[in-house]
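Hello support,

Our group uses your service weekly, and this is the first time we've seen a run hang past the timeout. The protein is Protein-arginine rhamnosyltransferase. I'm not sure whether the cause is the sequence or the server load. Input pasted verbatim:
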Amino acid sequence: MKATWDIFCTVVDNYGDIGVTWRLARQLADEHALIVRLWVDDLHAFARLCPEADPQAARQYQQGVEVRHWPVDWPACETAEVVIGAFGCQLPAAYVEALAERSTPALWLNLEYLSAEDWVEGCHGLPSPQPNGLRKVFFFPGFTANTGGLLREGELLGKRAAFEQDAAARKAFLAGLGVKPAPEARLMSLFAYENAQLGHWLEALAADDQPTHLLVPEGRILADLHAWLGERLAVGEVRQRGALTLQVLPFVSQDDYDRILWCCDFNAVRGEDSFVRAQWAGRPLLWHIYVQEENAHWEKLEAFLKIYRQGLSDDAADALVALWRAWNMDRDMGEAWRGVLKHWPQLQTHARQWCLEQATRPDLATALVQFYRNWI
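Update from on-call engineer: The timeout came from a worker crash unrelated to the input. Re-ran successfully.
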């Protein structure tokens, strides 16, 4: 009998939570032949990532996964053998009661946010006894062997390599989005939260000796883009300022977003899902980390930079760190960007090497499945 898995996702204010859980659910069903239900409280957000989904359907099947609307009034249903509460979301009380009444215990996992902080290894896999006698286990994605790894489909890097080697496929894909970069242009993507430093960065790109074609998917950074331009751009519209060409892209499916990352020479990303996908793209990247109270997110940023910079020369590492700090700490992005350009070839090589190094470790879905097998 195949094990049944329930994944619970609460959409907060962005697409990171549903992005991660949707990728995970698909991979568990596709590569591990598991029976997976994904419970989502906001199907409209889910439909942005899965355009063929019906945001009104209480129950539907998409790409091998049963997708259920997580309603306020919880319906009576059987519990699963493995239950994942994503990112600290609270499971329905009736479901937790049903878990406590099972004749054979279920594995209850709390899938945590991604972090490179030192304490993560010590907390990964630790149980948390609950008042009703159940145990919830903390499961941490991460970048080291003593964590749960990163989401990565088995064929992902092979698909990327084939796409990279097929110039006609890349050209056709970009053309389908209305993108026709000049041959000599550096192609870049920008997916970020609001950022007061955007204008300084755009000024540096506009004044650069090399042309840049910047792709900006629909998102929260558009307000800052429009403020710098002095006008609003609709999806598909293109504007040029000096050496910089700006183009707004529509919100695309996850698979198409991967292809955008693969097409670009540099990717600015945000949150968790796009952050991980940019690493698998093997290109230099810039991470806009989700802001937390009292700047607690800076510790997570510094923890990642500490491990990611390893292998770079001191000068290249300092330039990379300066860029990431500028973007996340409201410092001069123009100066930081010019510093990074001095080390561009080394940063390209390093991004590829980092990707290959992370790919030597088990992916998150495989680690979850193996954890369950060891548990039973």
